[in-house]
Fold Nonsense-mediated mRNA decay protein 3.
Amino acid sequence: MTIQTSICPRCGQPTEEGLCPQCRAADVRLLTCQPRVTAVYCPVCDSQKRGKTWSDLQMPREDLIAELAVSATSIHEDAKDIRVTVRSQETGPNRTTCTVEVEATMYGVPVKETCETEIIWQKESCDRCSRISGGYYEGIVQVRATNRKINAYEREVAARIAEQVEESLQQSGDRFSFISDLQDTKDGVDITVGTQHLGLEISRMITGALGGRFTTHPKLVGEKEGRALYRITYSIRLPFYQKGDVVVARGGYFEVREIDGQRLRVFDLQNGTARTLTEDEVERLIGNVREAESALVVFTQPGAVGLMDPKTYQTKEVNAVPWTFPVEGQPIRVLRDEVEDRLVIVG
Ligand SMILES: [Zn+2]
Ligand SMILES: [Zn+2]
């Protein structure tokens, strides 16, 4: 009778051959950490540099710290069921000390080790911020109105659209689509853009929202790396009439819903139908529904509605409008036609 057993030469436990799993696991280092790792970031916009490439940081800072700490760590290739936790502490204005703890199994034996690494934060102006501070730009979007001054609402919409387009292009990875200047001028809004793509998108979106047209005017400004460098002026002309304007034409009142070149798609504020007017047919403008006042409905009767003028508190009678339902005792929105001294229900 023979007994086929090996004995671990280190601890004397029975084993299949050589060292027992416990002694093998104890013999290898689960974990090694580089003592430090350098992270380059832009102090202005928080972009991160990986190799030679800059990108916008899309993750919370603690996730970035964990990622950097893990990148400085190597785990033994025989480890299985690995769980990593990173604890970090700011140890200086540009230093973060990280403790990386790894739990795993080695040769079926549970093991746990920790190591430390330090992140050195290095400031560097990113490619985008360098362009901006160097005054680089590829175009200017100029928002103006036709034969009138651009109003506060249009200024606000234009600025908001410009910022939204900038953000969405940058989120899609187009780093140089920045707005380096957005200025309210006497005549309108001037938006200085880092790429022609951004200028074009902003012009499309603004005319889409506010109507009007834009034309592009390129100007050769020099050469960069053998390529002609153009700056483009995107000249936006908002239409004379705007969405929500109420105009007098053919003896009635119409709310402008859309502007298509010289043609206005309007809503008839008397009978509630849609129709088209040419600009020539418009006699005058009484206001915009955004500036509507609130008038109390005093009475309703077939064919007529009594409104309390919010300025004079006198009751004024207007024709009933079949497209809305004035309710006695409730307010309704009106515009004032100063010329005719009349209130016009706009709903
Ligand atoms: Zn052993
Ligand atoms: Zn930057």
User: Anything to note?
Assistant: DSSP finds five helices and 25 strands in the chain.
